[in-house]
Design goal:
- The chain is mainly beta and 191 residues long.
- It is built from no helices and 15 strands.
- Helices cover 0% and strands 48% of the residues.
- The termini are far apart.
């Protein structure tokens, strides 16, 4: 195309059908009337569609039988990534549920997905390494580590001292009742 001196003319560079990696493109500009020819070298770095996944928070702390926590899954796409991504948990311990069980992140906005995570009363307390798996419609899946900390539900025990008491009919006796706290229990109790 003709290019007047001192002006900018946009060019479209297409990487269609190329594999990832750097490419060298030679731009040739000639002015046949003036007998002038110039070249410019342009390096084009061709990239595959890709994304960087994130899951937070990690660790996520839950109490067995307690309220749900939340995990947010998000991603940062590169300029050529356009695939829908399904996010799902892998390696969750027995009794831990995710709602919804899977979520979808899609362009163009790439809004994060929030999942509620709950540990049933039967979930064994402990530290659980698990993964959030991000699976695009095309391309390989990516895993993000997520540590789940499950604590026991706060509770208390009862102890009576002495554990046995002998009384004559019509007599009174005294016992002491204590309620040792377990797992951070702080609530009041009525005896």
């Amino acid at each position: 195309d003709p290019m007047p001196p001192g002006q900018t003319v946009p060019f479209t560079v297409s990487a269609s059908g190329l594999t990832a990696g750097p490419r060298t493109v030679t731009l040739s500009v000639t002015d046949a009337a003036a007998g002038v020819a110039r070249t410019a070298i342009l390096t084009v770095n061709v990239t595959d569609p890709d994304f960087t996944p994130v899951a937070s928070p990690s660790p996520l702390s839950l109490t067995a039988g307690g309220p749900a926590g939340t995990v947010t899954a998000s991603l940062t796409p590169n300029a050529c990534f356009a695939s829908t991504v399904t996010v799902s948990p892998t390696g969750a311990p027995a009794g831990v549920t995710f709602t919804p069980p899977t979520a979808t992140i899609a362009g163009p906005g790439w809004a994060p997905a929030t999942l509620a995570v709950q540990a049933a009363p039967t979930t064994v307390p402990g530290t659980y390494p698990m993964m959030r798996t991000f699976t695009p419609a095309t391309g390989p899946a990516k895993n993000v580590p997520l540590t789940l900390l499950v604590a026991a539900l706060p509770d208390f025990t009862l102890a009576v001292t002495p554990p046995a008491l002998s009384l004559q009919a019509g007599a009174n006796g005294t016992v002491a009742v204590t309620a040792p706290a377990l797992n951070g229990f702080t609530g009041p109790i009525t005896v």
